[in-house]
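Structure in, sequence out. Go:
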């Protein structure tokens, strides 16, 4: 499957096709977030490079929301009974300077498309999430983080400027020095401050596709913390953690670390995914027993305490992108993702308590990731990362249980002084959100009055002023 085919496959699954212009009129299929929950009806009005956002929305009366590739897990990319403005057809590359690494592109371009262009020229993304099928605009709006947060900070740290279009026709060039308040509110502002039309990103030079990788087994939180401390100068670190085990296997995992190799090597575009998860899995496929069996196999597949190898960047950064639509594995009900960060003061105690609660619930899936965030400040007022420990995991949605466990875990996060990640959320309460993000009222003042999202309405009660 070629990149173009993969992008098309993804866009069709979201209910729109690349190149579909707004002149063709609105289309109205369901637009699912990655967690497949919640599901709301919305009108889709795709934007392209000539779209005039303010005039397009003139006749709309229930609010709008610009969206990317729907890789957020919950309702930050949804607007119930409103109009979504998908941006992936706004995907032109505008300029690239190999001297500085500065790349300017329309905001609907995907990170996969940027990599396809940049890697053969010896450049890589400064920060990347666990999937490359997200747009530049989506990466800014959620100020995403990657395995190098402890040294590179968030995605927004590398965005030198962008253009923001407001529904009243105002066009703002935003950077740390021009309209700095809009710059700081838009990075991590969940799309609420206006449409990001294009952005400039500082890419980083590489000499090969290869990563010098090391995988290290750990047993318990203290071994994880010791490995974190020892790897401060390694660019990428992340751990898989077994959330299902108790007793002597409690908090065992694999600490994965790597740097871009400095040995010159191949620099070509990636082969594209050949697999598509083919069917809706039955709801009971993921249960405590299948997850525990997977975790034991995954932990032991490494066989040795420490494994060193040179590996391609694709399986290192994007192991899950190998199969498109792998979220179908959770069946029609979908999944809730739970991701917290707890500041260092309570990070150890909070992580142990929450991992115990998760193991007790018997609900966790095998996709559980533990990482230490660093102290590089985020440029976004509403950005999620803080120095401390972050844990992310999926819960298959099971009637009557999953939401109850989620609420308990969110309350524990609050008690330990932590916060949850809106990009991954579909269930935190208004009270929880407003405690996690006291800056939300500031964002409310910068919100484009035409724009809102189901997430924003759920956690603040504010809707569009259209
Ligand atoms: C497998 C997987 C792994 C992931 N790993 C990570 C990770 O490691 N780190 C991390 O931080 N996140 C991670 N994520 C979450 C993902 O990176 C974010 O949710 C990202 O924002 C999704 O981008 P998108 O283009 O799909 O945008 P969408 O999900 O469609 O929208 C996200 C937000 O961006 C806004 N938006 C999109 N385009 C524009 C625009 N042009 N102008 C203004 N606002 C806009 C939307 O309004 C919405 O609020 C992961 C997701 C998946 C599915």
């Amino acid at each position: 499957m070629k990149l173009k085919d993969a992008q098309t496959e993804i866009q069709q699954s979201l209910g729109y096709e690349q190149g579909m212009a707004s002149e063709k009129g609105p289309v109205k299929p369901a637009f699912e977030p990655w967690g497949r929950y919640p599901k709301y009806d919305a009108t889709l009005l795709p934007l392209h490079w000539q779209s005039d956002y303010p005039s397009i929305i003139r006749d709309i009366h229930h609010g709008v929301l610009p969206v990317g590739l729907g890789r957020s897990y919950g309702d930050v990319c949804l607007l119930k009974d409103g109009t979504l403005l998908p941006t992936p057809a706004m995907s032109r590359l505008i300029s690239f300077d190999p001297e500085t690494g500065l790349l300017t592109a329309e905001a609907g371009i995907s990170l996969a498309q940027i990599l396809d262009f940049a890697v053969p020229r010896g450049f890589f993304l400064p920060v990347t999430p666990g999937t490359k099928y997200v747009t530049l605009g989506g990466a800014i709006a959620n100020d995403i983080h990657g395995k190098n947060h402890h040294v590179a900070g968030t995605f927004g740290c590398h965005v030198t400027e962008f253009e923001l279009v407001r529904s009243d026709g105002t066009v703002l060039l935003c950077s740390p020095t021009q309209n700095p308040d809009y710059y700081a509110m838009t990075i991590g502002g969940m799309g609420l401050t206006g449409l990001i039309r294009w952005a400039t990103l500082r890419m980083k030079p590489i000499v090969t596709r290869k990563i010098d990788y090391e995988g290290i087994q750990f047993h318990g939180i203290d071994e994880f913390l010791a490995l974190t401390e020892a790897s401060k100068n390694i660019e990428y670190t992340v751990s898989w953690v077994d959330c299902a085990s108790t007793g002597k296997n409690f908090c065992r995992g694999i600490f994965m670390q790597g740097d871009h190799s400095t040995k010159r090597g191949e620099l070509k575009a990636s082969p594209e995914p050949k697999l598509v998860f083919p069917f809706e899995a039955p709801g009971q496929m993921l249960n405590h027993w299948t997850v525990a069996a997977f975790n034991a196999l995954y932990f032991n597949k490494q066989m040795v305490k420490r494994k060193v190898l040179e590996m391609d960047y694709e399986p290192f950064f994007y192991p899950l992108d190998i199969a498109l639509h792998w979220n179908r594995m959770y069946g029609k009900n979908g999944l809730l993702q739970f991701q917290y960060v707890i500041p260092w003061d309570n990070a150890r105690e909070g992580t142990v308590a929450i991992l115990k609660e998760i193991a007790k619930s018997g609900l966790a899936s095998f996709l559980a990731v533990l990482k230490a965030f660093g102290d590089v400040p985020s440029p976004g007022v509403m950005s999620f990362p803080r120095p401390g420990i972050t844990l992310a995991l999926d819960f298959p949605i099971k009637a009557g249980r999953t939401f109850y466990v989620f609420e308990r875990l969110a309350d524990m996060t609050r008690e330990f002084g932590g916060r949850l990640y809106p990009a991954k959320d579909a269930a935190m309460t208004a009270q929880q959100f407003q405690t996690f993000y006291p800056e939300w009222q500031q964002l409310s003042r910068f919100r484009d009055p035409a724009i809102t999202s189901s997430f924003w309405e759920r956690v603040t009660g504010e809707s569009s002023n259209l």
